[in-house]
Design brief:
By secondary structure, the protein is an all-beta fold. Helices cover 0% and strands 46% of the residues. Strand 25 and strand 26 form a beta hairpin.
Amino acid sequence: MKITVLRWVRAVVSVGACMAAMSAQAGWDYWFNPAPTTGPGHGGLVRNISAFTNGANPTMLIAAIYGSGIYKSTDAGATWTVANTGLTDLRVRTVTASSNNAATAILYAGTEGGAGMFKSTNMGATWTPINNGLNCTTVRTVNVRSATLLYAGTNCAANSGIYRSTDGGANWSQVVGTGLPSVLDVVTISASTPGTVLRVAGPFGVYSSTDSGANWILRNGSTPNDLTANGTAPFGATVQSLSGNVTVGATAYDFVLVSGAGVFRALTGTSTWTQFNSGLPHLRQVGGLSITTINGVQTFTLALEGSGIYSTTDPAVGWTLLSADVSFGRGTTVDPSNNQTVYSASLAGAYKSTNSGATWTAINNGLPAGLVSAVATDASNRDIVYALSATVYKSTDGGVTWAHKDAGIGSSTQSSFI
């Protein structure tokens, strides 16, 4: 069997005709323990990074790494240490904080393996489970509005949906209102600070409430201004991110990112959606939409998997490539101490930019072994191993050491040997 690589651009490229007989294994199930700086996917699948001011000390970072738990940096990403004490589920989907000040921040971690929610009051030194009343403990998203008010979005066969806590996670209750399905796979939540306005999104599209969740409306729109601009919202795709009440110029909009369809916006609270993807080379794999202030300017950044990070100050005027250094980004975070410094979570580790996103450097020292999407061994020589992560890697000594083998295909590889 010949090895091929499926790229984000949907081209199938031969890695080598000489590999006639291979044994292949695919799936998001591989955590390697390679040489520290050369192995596939080094840095792990980083779901998100949170940045905190830390007095006169360097910026403190907290990273959620799926399959490896939570890691902490006290030197702005130069080095990392594991911060999993008390954490019983390493499939961490997100870590969110009550503030960006390390002296006062309370951290909340949502896990996807059934262990639910965890809380830390000492910047990740220890974690305590907080699941009283949380009847679905597969948590996909967390939205923290204050030290006491927070929301969790869950995904279970029953009792799945939106949960709210008004006492810092000590107790939870499911938000059930008129017009809202009894079971929802919630991917993202947007809320006002007092919690009066709620927006939730997922495979179902977007629901909104203006009365703290008592009543809900479905806001997928209708042709030709639905969430996919083709009359079938959301056509089975998932709304990956949702940002509500974002002001562009003097107008407030709600923005969503739809898997396979890109960026849409509607006037806040309305259901007339317009698609804004000009300048993007493709829409098949969008890693995350972030709205932050970079170098004093409100900036939209879109991680387009396999292509890089695109940016704009207004999606209506189009997108431009900010940097191709981060091929598999999951979203960006601005340093609260220096808004020219930006961090990016990615499938293959953490990245840092000190020039407003123009160039990026991997900051994976101390992060765990990487998450690898596919593995293949040469049937005639089991010491020869190929692995896919952010690019193609080859080992000739059974995985002890690795080298890039991506000449001619670059770093835009994806997920399987065929």
